[in-house]
Amino acid sequence: MGDQTVRRARPLLGTVVSIHLNDVAMTPSQHEAAFSAAFDVVAHIGHVMSAHAPHSDLARLSQASSGEVLTLDPHTVHVLRAAQYWQHVSHGAFNPGWAAARLSAAGQRPGLMRHHHASAGLHALEVLSDTTVKLQHAIALDFGGIAKGYAVDCAISKLQQHGVVHALVNAGGDVRAIGHTVWPVDVRHAQHNVMDVRVRACQSLQHQALATSVAVPFNSEFVHVRRFSKQRWRSATVQAPDCMTADALTKWALQSSDLCPQLRNVLRTHQARMWRSL
Q1: CATH code of domain 6-26+163-277
Q2: Which CATH homologous superfamily contains domain 57-142?
Q3: For the whole model, what pTM was predicted?
Q4: Are the C-beta atoms of residues 163 and 26 closer than 8 Å to each other?
């Protein structure tokens, strides 16, 4: 990364979020202002989209009455729209309600209500505006990785607004870089503490995003593997122009067959690349 890199890290989003700046033309005070703005937006997104906090937007969605119109944070509505898109194009492989139902029933998502009216489907939600949604009934959602990827993207946007040109943001496996700096990348195998040989083609990152998800029980990135699937992928890594897209695609990639034309078509549409490991 070079001796010119300035780094800061904070515990956010259930992981450690680190920001690396490589803009030597900026003053120390400009660096600190950029760091502060980026960490602030990440913290805000983590708060409003927490499945653990009892007053978050996700908690309110799980407590809603039939036909209720809720005013939500614009960041939450943006991710809801994205979640609906990814659930549609993946034919249900991407489903933020599945983990929410499983984990809230086990008491691992205390912010989400546990009752028979809650639904795992996004079909019960209609987006009315950038800040309002209407619900047919309560829904339990856990945005997990996709919100983390979105937070990384927003942190990058804040850095750019503060004049940062060369930077990297890493939120526990969701990574995005801007500028011409080439950042080294080390993706480790889900079961072994060694570099994943299938991802050796991606050992550096430049002006792209990278996300990795694993299908391991009791892991926060755990996704439902379809029973009819013969493939049992342990991990999926996707490189894409933005982090939210990369993260959403990893969830679908973990559940698709070795040759999945629909997934590969969407990868091409979003200018993304995929690596998977058994």
Answers
A1: 3.10.520.10
A2: ApbE-like superfamily (1.10.3980.10)
A3: 0.88
A4: yes
